[in-house]
Amino acid sequence: MTTTALLHDFCARRGDLAARCRHCGAREFNICQALDPGLQEKLFALALRLQLGKREPVFAAGDPAHYVYNLTEGMVCLSRSLADGRRQILGFLLPGDFIGFEAGETHRCDAETLTEAKACRFERAVFDGFLQDNPETALRLLRMASSELAQAARHEVLLGRKTAVERIASFLLDLRDRSGERHLRTQPLALPMTRSEIADYTGLTIETVSRVLGRLRTDKVIELASTSAVRVIDEAALERMAGPA
Amino acid sequence: MTTTALLHDFCARRGDLAARCRHCGAREFNICQALDPGLQEKLFALALRLQLGKREPVFAAGDPAHYVYNLTEGMVCLSRSLADGRRQILGFLLPGDFIGFEAGETHRCDAETLTEAKACRFERAVFDGFLQDNPETALRLLRMASSELAQAARHEVLLGRKTAVERIASFLLDLRDRSGERHLRTQPLALPMTRSEIADYTGLTIETVSRVLGRLRTDKVIELASTSAVRVIDEAALERMAGPA
DNA sequence: CGGTGGATTGAGGTAGATCAACATGCGTGG
DNA sequence: CCACGCATGTTGATCTACCTCAATCCACCG
């Protein structure tokens, strides 16, 4: 089963969390995860639906932040790069995540799709207006932002204080858990990102990523169906390898 | 000049950004940085003023998140620790920062003062209610959260992709810039945190922190008035050492 | 003053980086 | 449908930035 197929087939199983898109007719996962259905309907009415190709930039650091996006299908990668080419990947976004809400006038990082993806795009001013008119939604968004901050904190622990093995194990578990929360398939887990992107997420090199994944495989902790799909065999071992809580 | 003195003497210079506390009469830096004066007054009316000692815990990871705080004086350190004692410091907070706004029911990290400090404390429900009634404030808070996320992103780059020298130089410049934004004294810059805390912020060891600071001193890039106060001598050099943008 | 916790300095070790060679698989065009 | 070529991934050998361990120094506080 290809990565793309894996990522698309969640459609069938999101049931209660899904809403039918009035434009394309497809069921889509969306903001309803965070919002009441009524508000979600209202918000959705303000959105332009975007169909994005695989490995397509959504925006780049420094671009004027005209739009806010809500990812509804596929995976997007956020990163920041230094002028000499060093890159840090900040996270891999899943359906339901907001992208590009900025305090200032410009985007602070790069956003690029890893897979084909769909997103709802809002004019910044329109989005702000909606939040003004629906304080309940603003508070909800604020809680989502707080969750993102907690996620960033876990990532900082990973980058600052974990070993290579702990980083890779934590990365796999985190991706699996987040996929699970959003009712995406978690077994086998899709890894649409390259080794280079895993390296830039974990603060390691591609060689180290490859070696650690290889070691997890020979230790029978995971199986690599392909380079872009992992099956967790020994969950307990993987959790142990991710380090103490 | 002691660290505490350095941290307190900003009072005299915050002028336009300050409001007089109706309880203790002291001028204090506060939420007005982010809010209109009218709203700030209303919000302040809901707060309990807290006087905190040096190195006093504000809350710990896992504690029920009953309160939201706004730091008005002093410095607070946010951190997360692993069960084996490894610690990652997420940031050093300055007057004006909010602390403890959570998506869930409990705090996700530890918060401890580095200096004597003052804070406004809000009941969570009261705070939420205020945001409901003042959508403009909620939007403002959302922008502040977005700034924090951007700060976290810079920290992730530091932890994942920078060398020891770049980390220390970046840390010093960041602290200086943020102090400047809040009209705190930046020369000499107060470092109320220990080497161990700098190490846990930068993902290094105390020995490496000490060596790098020593090297910056012998290279005449900084002067160490004491272990807890730095004067930047060669700003351009420090910026070069912080790595490419 | 003398003790104690933090900071500095030095010597040596190691996890992960770097450099290099090779393998694999996937998209493309025949 | 298959062969080719290039990008991506793997594996091995060596190097090094930073860690670890250990000794000493120093500032602050009683």
> Main sheet of chain A: which strands, in order across?
3-10-5-8
Main pleated sheet of chain A: 4 strands, antiparallel
H and E order of chain A: HEEHEEEEEEEEHHHEHHEEH
Second CATH tier, the architecture of the largest domain in chain A: Sandwich
Structural class of chain A: alpha+beta
Short description:
Chain A has 245 residues and is an alpha+beta fold. Chain A has helices at residues 3-8, 37-44, 124-133, 135-161, 164-181, 195-202, 206-218, 235-241; strands spanning 18-20, 27-29, 48-52, 57-59, 67-73, 76-81, 87-93, 98-99, 110-113, 117-123, 189-190, 222-226, 229-232.
Word description of this protein:
- 2 copies of one chain form a homodimer.
- The first copy, chain A, has 245 residues and is α+β, with helices and mostly antiparallel strands.
- Chain A folds into 2 domains: 3-150, Jelly Rolls (Sandwich), CATH 2.60.120.10; 162-241, Winged helix-like DNA-binding domain superfamily/Winged helix DNA-binding domain (Arc Repressor Mutant, subunit A), CATH 1.10.10.
- Chain A has 8 helices and 13 strands.
- In chain A, the strands form 4 sheets. The first copy, chain A, has a 4-stranded antiparallel beta sheet. A 4-stranded antiparallel beta sheet of chain A has the order 4-9-6-7. A 3-stranded antiparallel beta sheet of chain A has the order 11-13-12.
- In chain A, a hairpin with a 6-residue loop joins strand 1 and strand 2 (27-29).
- In chain A, helix 3 (124-133) crosses helix 4 and helix 6 (195-202) packs across helix 7.
- The radius of gyration of chain A is 18 Å and the shape is globular.
- Mean pLDDT of chain A is 88; it is low at 1-29.
- Chains A and B meet through strand 7, helix 3 and helix 4 of A and strand 7, helix 3 and helix 4 of B.
- The structure holds a DNA duplex (30 and 30 nucleotides).
